[in-house]
Each structure stands twice: as C-alpha cells, then as structure tokens.
Amino acid sequence: MEKYQEIERSIIKKFRKDIWAKFISSIQEYELIKENDKIMVCISGGKDSFLLAKCIQELQRHGKFPFEAHFVCMDPGYHQKNRELIEKNAKLMNIPIEIFESDIFDVVASQEKSPCYLCARMRRGSLYNHAKELGCNKIALGHHMNDVIETTLLSMFYGSEIKTMMPKLHSDNFEGIELIRPLYQVREEDIAAWVKFNELEFLNCACKFTEETNTIDEEKSKRKEMKKLVRELKKQNNQVDYNIFKALDNVNLDCVLGTKKNHEYESFLKHYDD
To answer: Residue 240: how many CB atoms within 10 A of its CB?
Structure first.
C-alpha cells in the first residue's frame, strides 16, 4: 500500500469518528457542498489545509453527488525550503496541487504599520481573484473548531461583542463566490493526532516577514492566549471547549441585553413590555 493510501485509510478508519464523521456532519448540517459545485481548496502548507484536501478528495470519491475541486496553493514569497516542503507533502499525499505566485511578502515588508493585517487582506484578495479565474463558486479553508472557539473568545475579550467565525459566508466583494469551512466541527487535537499517527511534517508558520524581523503577530499572540485559557479551563471541565462552541448555536435571545443585525443595534427594552 502506498503512503498516500495509508493516509486516506486512516481518515476513514482510525479517525472516522473524530475527523471523517465530523467533516461529513459539517458538510450536511451547514449545507457546505452541493451538486456540481466548483470548489477551490486552499492549501497553506499547514496540517489543517492538507487534511481538508484529503477529506475533499475522499468525498469526491465516495460522495453521493459530483462536484469539482481545485487544490490551490498561493506562494506569497515563501523561503525555498518551505515551498519545497509543501510540494513534497502534496506529492506524498497524492494531491494534484496547483501553485500560483504573488509578491505579497515583499509588499508587506515595506509597511511599518499593521503588516500582518495587510498581508491577510492581500492574501484573501488574491485567493478570491484566483477562484474567479478558475470559475469556482466556492473557496474551502481549513479552519477547525478551535479556531471558532478562539475567535469567539477574542471577540468577547477584546472586541466587546459576541460573534464568531461562521461555517460559510458570501463574499461582499466577489459576487457569486462563497467561503466554506468543512472542518468546522473537527477539534485541533484530533488533527494533531492524525498527523502524529501518519508521521507527517507540515509547515507551522511560513511567514518570511516575521521570520526575518523577529516580529510577533499580535493576533496570533492573543490566539495563543485563548488556547492557553481553554486548556486551563478544560482541566476543570473537559467539555468546556465543546460547550463554548455549542453555545453559539443555542443563543437565548430572551436573556441578552441587546442584539445587532446588519449593523443595527436593538435593545431588549424595545420588546420588554410587549
């Protein structure tokens, strides 16, 4: 059996409950993939996006309806060793990856203020433009449950509002393109276990700018803070991460002070005497 076949088998056998079933659950519950969709699967080089690619491949082979998938990696100016690792993993895992290049890292390096914010914005724009060129109607990203939980906590602690990372959303600037997150219900610890089981090595952070300037991305620093917080809370309640995640699907509007819809705020007082 080839290595890529062992990797595929591990997803649907050993990690069936923790990864495959939750991937399928996200697809079905949030209606992420439909018949004849044309999806651009974004591969950053990390463990999450490569797992996403393999899950999408498995769904293409064993799913109930046909859809297209393009496995795309944008090279914003990676160091050669990082580019080679991405290509090596794509070959090892039998993923027909398409790499397109940009000069985003070089542009960002010339900016003194908010380089990470600018980089993220430019990367997003490049991906949407490429999806449009390919004729794709959806872009799939590898965000998982822990990303959702951390985003929620960051919004509460640093943004004074309750909001989260959604399983799918329509693009405001690219009509007809939808962003989807098929690993939405998969825990990061289970992805890490899958990586360890298959003895794989992926990029952790390939940002050339932060490597060369020794800069710490403030958002990533805050996310690490949230990760640490959740780990500490789980020592007292092992289900705390799931409970935070589930709470976002169980908001009791009778017991909140105010809500916001389309940027319009509404206080509980509006309907208090009804």
So the answer is: 17
Sequence ranges of the domains in the chain: 3-271
- Superfamily of domain 3-271, CATH level 4: HUPs (3.40.50.620)
> E strands, the chain, where?
38-42, 68-75, 97-101, 138-140, 168-170, 178-180, 258-261, 264-267
81-85, 185-189, 203-207: range with highest mean pLDDT: 185-189
Query: With contact defined as beta carbons under 8 Å apart, do 231 and 154 qualify?
Result: no
CB-based contact 202:52 (threshold 8 Å): no
CA geometry: angle at 258 spanning 252 and 259, to 5°? 75
Beta strands 38-42 and 68-75: pairing type? Answer: parallel
**Among 48, 70, 58, which residue's Cα sits nearest to residue 24?**
58
What's the distance, Cα to Cα, between the start and end of the chain in Å?
A: 67
What mean pLDDT is reported for the chain? 90
Dump pLDDT digits (tens) for 253-266: 999 999 999 999 99
